[in-house]
Amino acid sequence: MEAVAEHIQEELNVQTVFTIPIFGGIGVAESVVVTWIIMGVLILVSILLTRGFKTRNISKRQAAVELCVTKLLGLVESMLGEEGAQYAGYLTTVLLYIGVANIIGIFGFKSPTKDLNVTLALALMSIVLVQAAAIRAKGVKGWLKGFTQPIAVVTPFNILDLITRPLSLCMRLFGNVLGAFVIMKLIEQVLPVVLPAVFSLYFDLFDGLLQAYVFVFLTSLYIKEAIEE
Amino acid sequence: MSSLIAIGAGIAVFGALGAGIGIGIATGKAVEAVARQPEADGKIMKNLILGCALAEATAIYGFVIAIMIIMFLK
After folding, report:
1. Quick check: is B29 in a domain?
2. Where are the alpha helices (DSSP H) in chain A?
3. Domain span at residue B50?
4. Could you give the angle at which helices B16-36 and B41-72 cross, rounded to 10 degrees?
5. CB-hemisphere CA count at 13 Å for A130?
6. CB contact under 8 A, A210 and B71
7. What pLDDT sits at residue A229?
8. How many whole angstroms separate alpha carbon B59 and alpha carbon A172?
9. CATH at B24
10. Structure pTM?
């Protein structure tokens, strides 16, 4: 049991892969490198898939890509509502990134969302987007006034929301990925052959994609709430 | 000391109690809704899965705290 605990703890630590030798050395963590890999793959796939698109006589590949993109954008736009539809591009990108990041563990990489810093950064980006959307829609005055809605007594709670919302977004994603990872490691200790493959379908594929969806759903819910009058 | 840490981690996982009850109630209501309106099956299923993922978060918080207690209090 000691060995298992030590092994898991070793896997949980985020190692520094290399150090950039400027400003006294900037450490580049493993999650950053895996994020670069995900970025590279996503960009490469988009470039390869969208090459040679035409307006008429489209190929089967173009039809399939257009269907996928329309479905994904439609999914996010339906959550954002009409007014927030302009933010669908960013949220779809986040959905793709978290989705790939959660299931990249299958290919032997360490999932970047297992690093608390990554999920915290994503959550902070979300909350900044929500506040920026509120300012854009209602102006600075309307945004500040929004904190006293519906009655003045709830103002402290509304301000507290600024902290608890990103915290819960960040902890939910991190905890789910970490939990799935620990459970998978324990299952591998019990029986390393068929069993992990079956459970990996649920924990890595289903739960990973579901959490990406939940993250985007909650962010779009906050945006929708922030920009409505 | 280590037994106290184990007890603490066990108490932290008690948060899973709420998630279990919540998801149980949600699933029960969803089954009722499907029985009443079988044609709304897809919509109900989507909302149920989303609600379950949100309710599950409390259990996950407890789990994270338990792991942290074990890892950092040695």
Report:
1. yes
2. 2-12, 30-49, 60-80, 88-103, 116-145, 155-190, 194-200, 207-227
3. 2-69
4. 170
5. 23
6. no
7. 63
8. 10
9. 1.20.20.10
10. 0.83
Task: Please report residues of B whose CB lies closer than 8 A to that of A178.
Answer: 64, 67
* Residue B25, domain member (yes or no): yes
Shortest distance, CA A11 to any CA of chain B (angstroms): 12
Dihedrals phi, psi of A26, to nearest 5 degrees: -105, 120
List the single residue in A179, A182, A217 with the smallest CB-CB distance to B50: A217
ipTM > 0.95 (yes/no): no
Q: What is the pLDDT of residues A138-197, one digit of tens each?
A: 888 888 888 887 788 888 888 888 898 898 889 888 888 888 888 887 788 777 788 888
Q: How many CB atoms lie within 10 A of CB A190?
A: 8
| From A5, A9, A210, residue closest to B53, measured CB to CB | A210
Distance CA A119, CA A175 (A): 10
Tally Cβ neighbours within 10 Å of residue A228. 12
Domain-located, residue B74? no
The pLDDT tens digits of the residues spanning A24-45 come to: 777 788 888 889 999 999 999 9
Q: What is the pLDDT of residues B2-48, one digit of tens each?
A: 888 889 989 988 888 989 999 999 999 999 999 999 898 888 888 88
By CB neighbour count within 10 A (0-12 exposed, 13-18 middle, 19+ buried), where does B62 fall? buried
| Residue whose token pair is 């289903």 | A206
Distance CA A207, CA B45 (A): 16
- A93-131 pLDDT, tens digit per residue, is 999 999 999 888 888 788 888 888 899 999 999 999 999
pLDDT tops 90 at residue A16 = no
Q: In this structure, is residue B45 part of a structural domain?
A: yes
Domain count, chain B: 1
